[in-house]
Amino acid sequence: MSRNPFADESPLFDGAPADEPLFLQPTSRDRMIENGVGTVIGVFVVLTLIFSVIEGFSASATHFFLGIALLMFSAVTVQLISWFRLGDLDPKFKLAILTMVLGVCLLVIVANVYFWAPPTVNPVCGNTAAGNAGGEEQALMYDTIDKQCWLRCSAGHGLDRSPSAPGVCKPFAAA
């Protein structure tokens, strides 16, 4: 092996190399704060994962995949924190770890807002109206260009917007 010509050979401190710690020793108060904040964040992450699994099987798979993303992001953050506490990472990684912890907190907040958001109601049209056949309820959508409420047609049907019969759901013609 050749020697690195750009390496600095001068010591950073006076004394034996083994006497100086790589990181400053944390006080017991610092450790208590870190453990308290970590526990609170961990509880929220676990609760959000439970909610994502419950909502993922009942409502939408999007909830489940959001929980998986949260789990992976949290696992990487926990691993970096453990390496940092062991002294295997440089102190310059502290900012990256703090950013990832804030990212996990933000992801938990976004996931909970997404899971517990009330269903949206169209303020102009409402959610449903009597359909054109059989009196069944059909969803409505608001057209911002025409400023009108239109029926949302089921699969295999299209919305007829011709002047003769505007807003009627008609089945697609067989090709």
Summed up, the domain count is: 2
**What is the residue-averaged pLDDT?**
76
Taking Cα atoms only, what radius of gyration do you get, to the nearest Å? 29 Å
Main sheet: strand order = 1-2-3
Strand content range? 5-15%
How would you spell out the order of helices and strands? HHHEEEEE
Query: Per the principal axes of the C-alpha atoms, what is the gross shape?
Result: elongated
Pairing-aware structural class of the strands and helices? alpha+beta
Terminal CA distance reads: 74 Å
Helix residue percentage: 40-55%
Low-confidence stretches: none
Number of helices: 3
Question: Major beta sheet, specifics?
Answer: 3 strands, antiparallel
Number of β-strand runs: 5
Oligomer: single chain
Question: Can you characterise this structure?
Answer:
The chain is an alpha+beta fold and about 180 residues long. The chain has 2 domains: about 30-115, no CATH class; about 130-170, no CATH class. The protein is built from 3 helices and 5 strands. The strands form 2 sheets. A 3-stranded antiparallel beta sheet has the order 1-2-3, with no helix packed on it. Strands 4-5 form a two-stranded antiparallel sheet. A hairpin with a 4-residue loop joins strand 2 (about 135-145) and strand 3 (about 150). The chain starts with about 25 loop residues before the first helix and ends with a strand. The model has no long low-confidence stretch (mean pLDDT about 75).
